[in-house]
Amino acid sequence: MQEVAFYDARVYDRQSFESIPAAKNYRWHFHEFRLSAETAATARGAFAVCVFVNDRLDEDCLQKLAESGVKIIALRCAGFNNLDLKAATRLGLKVVRVPAYSPHAVAEHAVGLLLCLNRKIHRAYNRVREHNFSLSGLVGFDLQGKTVGIIGTGRIGKAAAQIFEGFDTRVFCYDPFPDAAWAGTRRMIYTDLEKIITESDILSLHLPLLPETRYLLNEARFKQMKKGVFIINTSRGKLIQTSALIDFLSSGHIGGVALDVYEEEEGIFFEDHSDSVDLDETLSRLLTFPNVLVTAHQAFLTHEALGEIARMTVGNIVNFAEGKAFFEGSVLHSQ
């Protein structure tokens, strides 16, 4: 029976993967620790490794995997900025991912974060539990009539845009590869990035992390934004320059920020640090703002998304073992 080494495993991961019938034909080793050059030796004997967003697959790690007999790396996520794809290709390691699991899960979480932050639901919840029924400081605004800027219109960005359309907002979209046919069937307006940055009341990021998108929102861009703008990021933390974000929150220029990701989240998110005082200083500062709402990279966490991640990941591993075709869009190639 062939073996698969599974890293950064959580209870919900194990449950979803073990529910896939085809998985029973393989021996799964679920490791709670992350994969890195230091832990790569634990993959010895496995023909496949299954990894997540905070596993670190640099050239050193990949070299050790190849020497251990690993043939395929299965990312149970869409992003792959934590993997040296050129090194993997050179070493003959096949890399597959889950290009789309549940775009609605992430899009709905993004909108949910905005609604919670805008209407101060998280603050009201805590007040009421302490029998404080005052409404002071809980004023929000109507979404109706506001301009929403969607940056990135892949599956998730489109789903988010369509939800915002239902609130009777004006939706501007930006993407290097605009889908005019999709926009034409709705009230979406594709425009340039500068117009979105300068005119949006609400900005929602739905982009991969690439060299050209790193710190897409930086000091210069924050200066261009409307005073009071709300920013949502459920994509990748390094799309936003956090130090500059804090400066513009401090000045009152930015009205609110809702984040499901953070640029230095590795080693912090997915772990319980409630008994620790040694938290990242920048994140600690960010959490002091009453108009900042942070969740710990949970936008994907729905039954439907977990089921689809498990189905596609197991399917790709099985197809590789049996010499069959992978799911469309799964295989990553070095440029």
At a glance:
The chain is 33% helix and 15% strand.
Shape: globular
The order of strands across the largest sheet is 8-7-6-9-10-11-12
What is the C-level CATH assignment of the largest domain? Alpha Beta
Report the average pLDDT across residues: 95
Say what the CATH topology of the largest domain is: Rossmann fold
Q: Give the name of the CATH superfamily of the largest domain.
A: NAD(P)-binding Rossmann-like Domain
Order of H and E elements: EHEEHEHEHHEHEHEHEHEHEHEH
Number of domains: 2
Q: Structural class of the helix and strand makeup? A: alpha/beta
CATH architecture of the largest domain: 3-Layer(aba) Sandwich
Main sheet attributes: strand count, strand direction, barrel closure:
7 strands, parallel
Number of DSSP-assigned strands: 12
What is the CA-CA span between the terminal residues?
A: 34 Å
Radius of gyration: 21 Å
Strand content: 5-15%
